[in-house]
Amino acid sequence: MSLNVGFVSTRFSGIDGVSLEAAKWSEVIDTMGHQSYWFAGESDRTPDRSFVEPKAHFKTALNHRINRCITLDREPDFDAPATIQQQKAELETALLAFLETYNINFLIVENAISIPMQVPLGLAVRNVLSKLRIPTIAHHHDFYWERGRFQFNGYQKMIQRTFPPNLPNVRHVVINSIAQRQLFERTGITSQIIPNVMDYSNPPAIEGDRVSRLRTTIGVDPDDIMILQPTRMIARKGIENTLEIVRRLNDARCKLIVSHKVDDEGWDYYRRITATCEKLGIDIRFIYGIVANPILNNFDPEAQYSLWEVYKAADLITFPSLNEGFGNAFLEAIFVEKPIVMNRYETFVADIESKGFDVIKFDGRINSNTMDQVRTILSNKSRQQQMVETNYGLAKLNFSYDLLRKQLSGLIPST
Q1: Are residues 249 and 148 in the same domain?
Q2: Is the pLDDT of residue 73 over 90?
């Protein structure tokens, strides 16, 4: 039976991890004979398969106000509980309209009932799932207990009941073993691990002329050293260590390029990093506006470049994250065959490191050994080739679309 599969989240747009991973799942699900549809506050998916309800976005002014009341201090002139209930009701109506419009008979909820970035949406999703009993996969990328900023101001019971809900029609998928263990210990909910993946059987076709044009567009000369930070600009990405790498290289040819959004969690971290760059004389550039989702391939090639083209233009990928659900940038660097220097964050140590990947690793801080390896990889092409070939083979074996297809076939009825 062919299913109309509805993806639900706050945002399906751009190159953040949730948006990219949902696109990969959709690609595989479509090859299984099903059809994908999208509900979100913002969507760059096919318009005639998208139901956009702006109130579902996590970056609305009203949602920011709700979140401040939930996690910080209550406002005396703002009735947060009543506002939450009103927004929940409106979003529930929108969700029901989405289900009816596209005749949805299977749901995949992407992080909307995992982390309370948009509490009314989470409550609305829970209500719909509870009432309709529609078969659902809850795809969890992050949980609130993994993020220190979520300290709830009298809303703990509501959050615990919804993020995530324990319902008989919902099957839970996590992206690492730590999340699986913590989810069970905290809620009694069992889950299946499906790690992030890439289509390693189909490496990207990237035109050299476009890569050269991209470097010229962003002001990187042929002899420059382009260091790519392919993450959003938020504190847990540990970008201070990337600055330390650039500082220690002490080479005027170094250009630090940030490819992802800078304001998803406010502007404080951006200001801190740019101030440090100014103090240290680091040339940092932000190019999110010209970077497009490489999986959808629906961008204007005259105005934008795919994320894969951005990776290909780089000489070195930095991934110094302090905490990650899995680590898309790790898989992406391997996919585009680029050397990577990275922090040994907890999920990497638990689920990835033992597979034998050849990367430059450090433990929390850059040291002289790290820099010796960085200088070697930048100057030694044969060492680079050895690294990227080893990593591509290991990634294809462990994190491929074939693995995803096999696991989803056990969760979604076949055609």
Answers
A1: no
A2: no
